[in-house]
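Give me a protein, keeping tokens residue-aligned:
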Amino acid sequence: MANATLNCPLCCSNNILQRTTVGTFFKVWRCGECTFTWVDRNDLARPEAAASYDNYGYNRHLRSSFEQMKPLYIKGLQQRISRRLSDRSLQNCAFLDVGCANGEYLWTAKSIGFGRVAGVEIDSSAAKLASVYGEVVDDVEKFAPFTFDVVQIKNVLSNIPDFVGFLSSCLQVLKPDGFLLLDNPNQDSLTALLRNTLARDYQKTGLYGHLRPPHVINGFNLASIKELYRRLHLTPTYISTSYIGTSVVPYYPPNFTAKVLGLTTSFFGKGSLLITEGKSNVNT
């Protein structure tokens, strides 16, 4: 693979190499410094690479399993909130879910006692469903600064070309003593490794690890997510990995195999999802 003439979008290093090509033309790069992996932004700018989120398949998938998963949503969010907000009355706290899909976590936040819940969602059909639970807008900048005690951004940064700028905008609405929940697919997970090992025809599969251009275009791992926290002056209070299907990050009902894989891969930091929490260390 040839050396790049561009810099890493995360740490700005020019120590990067092209790893492969996904689909017809999407080049994938990996930084030798922070280990961040991404799809070439010039390729994403091509007209045929425009990503649509109308009636997005991911949101439809969540919708189909939500009723069955409600107890796990509650268990998972309560577990996370208790780590930081156990000394506060949730009735006086506000919760924002950026990329709220159909409102699954808006319902959950209201159910465990949050006084105000709101969401950001660009899929209009999903946003309409989510608006039953609270205010839903298509741009986080429509909210006033320092509004929310908790800002959750789950499986969103992996889809955003300017993820640093986007996250900075999201942090503007977080209160100075607020709590960030930031989750992303783990590009160095066992799942991603097996996918790359067993299906090396990336042009045909359209996948490289968890990357799936033009939608999933950023590949974070434990090292690069820590660099993201450092760059944005955030203090991580919790960083771990989990397996899809656990109570912390529910997507579908977990079976015995998923639970065993979850415990094993999480122990080695190879779970499918990066589960991170943090706070700002910049005085306002």
In short: The mean pLDDT is 90.
